Amino acid sequence: MRHALLRALGAIVLAALAGCAHYQARPIDPAATAAQWQARRLDDPALAARLAPAVAWPPARYGRGELLLAALVLNPDLAEARAHLAEADAAVRTTKAWPNPSVNLALERYAQDQAGSSPWLWGVSTNWLIDTAVRRRLRADLADAGVRGARIDYAEKVWEVRRTLRTALADLLLGERQHALAEDAVAKAAALQAAQERRRALGEAVPADVLQVALVLAQARDASATAAQRVADARARLARAVGVPVHALDGVVLAWDGLESPPALSATQLDQLATQARLSRPDLERALVDYAARETELRQQVRMQYPQISIGPGYTYDHGVRKLQFNLGATLPLFDQNQGPIAEAEARREAAGRHVEAVQAGIDSEIEGTTAKLAAARQALDAATHGRGAAERLQQQTAAGYAHGEDDRLAVLNAQLATATAAQAQLAAADQAQQALGALEDAVRTPLEGNEAELLRAAGHAGDTP
Q1: Residue among 83, 9, 432, 78 nearest 259 (CA)
Q2: CA–CA distance from 444 to each of 65, 112, 165, 456 (Å)?
Q3: For residues 415 and 396, what is the distance between their CA atoms, to the nearest angstrom?
Q4: Quick one: angle between helices 133-201 and 282-303, nearest 10?
Q5: Which of 93, 343, 358, 378 is 20 to 30 Å from 230 at the Cα level?
Q6: Which ranges of 281-322 does DSSP label H, i.e. alpha helix?
Q7: What is the DSSP secondary structure assignment for residue 333, as one 8-state letter?
Q8: Which residues of 372-387 are buried (b: 16+ CB within 10 A; e: fewer)?
Q9: What pLDDT sits at residue 466?
Q10: Host H or E run for residue 106
Q11: In this structure, are residues 62 and 47 in contact, taking their beta carbons and an 8 Å threshold?
Q12: Please, where are the H alpha helices in 57-205?
């Protein structure tokens, strides 16, 4: 009997060990990861395989949608966010697991032999926690809330990458256009300065006129240098957001149709977007998930004030006498009925509820502010567009007057410089309008232009978790 019991116990232990997971080392070699990063490129066949056949890759031109598709696969921050999402999924498995029993082995021997009795006493006792269905369901609900929260966090991380991509691409393309306009203004200001110098040499201009043109030339050169710095910075930010080194953008054709003329949104569209954001923006959903988790946590702490029962069947060989035993254990809430943890859970639930209200108020304020900012930016863009048109008409009139001998060369150069300055002002206004539109997109968490949504649906959110 004793040997049979020991063999059965040994078989159970071996079976449990056979089902254990095995550790596998996975060291990280910084040199190898750095080399892999430097080797990334947008026309990588592996990237094309991930996006095919829904999207033809690589595209001839890379807009915001194409860059976002590549970032979903290549961006290391999104890869890290997906790993954290896997952590939350693993936590669900933990909550659904049954608690393992414990086993104790007792062994003793009499130092003095007694005739007719065995000198040995040994026994095996176990302890099985009674895990009720209510407790298991509450733990599972908390873990499920963690998964929902992690998925919302991942969606917010995707939007953060998309926002960075949008800002960097706009800065890069607008910076290139600003640099081109600034270089044109430098050329025109230099020609005007040379003309003024000649007039001063002939006694037809005063030094103040020459100084004024010199200041204009210095401002144009400064604007050119600033635009060049903006392009370099935006290029680095764009590459990081996509998930490739900067040199991977060499030869890549970047595009943004309608960059200098952001779309106008009707009042009805704005109202619909605002209503949707006030009720279902991801950060509001995250706050609601957190509140539901605190609600479940409070129920769990209330449940913890009741006794937790365990049973402990066992076997004892007591000096030749075999005994079967059955133990029953329970926690007794004599000194504390879990009132402290219950009070803490109630306070956390109250704070989570107030956070929901704060998030809603922030969303409403953000939408109102960005809507007004976009309206003002569009008015400024319209005014700058009219100003450029007036400057171009004046340049044409001056050129015609010069052709008929009514205006001199200096007037033509001044008109050309005025047109270049008006073009710079219009581009700066378009820049502000794009920034305002981007802020409104952030407020409603919805792209308001471009083909990003269509490409994402076609590719099935490449790189996303199922």
Answers
A1: 432
A2: 18, 85, 17, 18
A3: 9
A4: 150
A5: 378
A6: 282-303
A7: -
A8: ebbeebbebbeebbeb
A9: 38
A10: strand 102-109
A11: no
A12: 64-74, 76-96, 133-201
- What amino acid is encoded at 76 in this protein? P
> Does 333 sit behind a cis peptide bond, omega within 30 degrees of 0 on the bond before it?
no
Q: Which two tokens stand for residue 419?
A: 């047109």
- Neighbouring C-beta atoms of residue 80, cutoff 10 Å: 11
* Chain Cα centroid distance, residue 364: 22
DSSP per-residue codes, 218-262: HHHHHHHHHHHHHHHHHHHHHHHHHTS-GGGGTT--B--TTTTSP
Q: Give the separation between CA 100 and CA 312, rounded to whole angstroms.
A: 13
Cα separation of 246 and 243, whole Å? 9
Peptide bond into 101 cis (omega under 30): no
Instruction: Identify the CA nearest to 58 among candidates 68, 70, 76.
Output: 70
Q: 344 is written with which tokens?
A: 């803490």
Alpha carbon dihedral 179, 183, 186, 187, in 10-degree steps, equals: -170
Cα–Cα dist 135/308, whole Å: 10
Q: How many residues does the chain have?
A: 466
Instruction: Taking residues 5-18, report their average pLDDT.
Output: 56
CA neighbor of 57 nearest in space, from 69, 74, 75? 69
Query: Does a cis peptide bond (omega within 30 degrees of 0) precede residue 58?
Result: yes
Residue 163: how many other CB atoms lie within 10 Å: 16
pLDDT in tens, 51-90: 877 778 888 899 998 999 999 999 999 999 999 888 888 8
Q: Are 45 and 432 contacting, i.e. CB atoms less than 8 angstroms apart?
A: no
Residue 459 has pLDDT above 70, yes or no: no
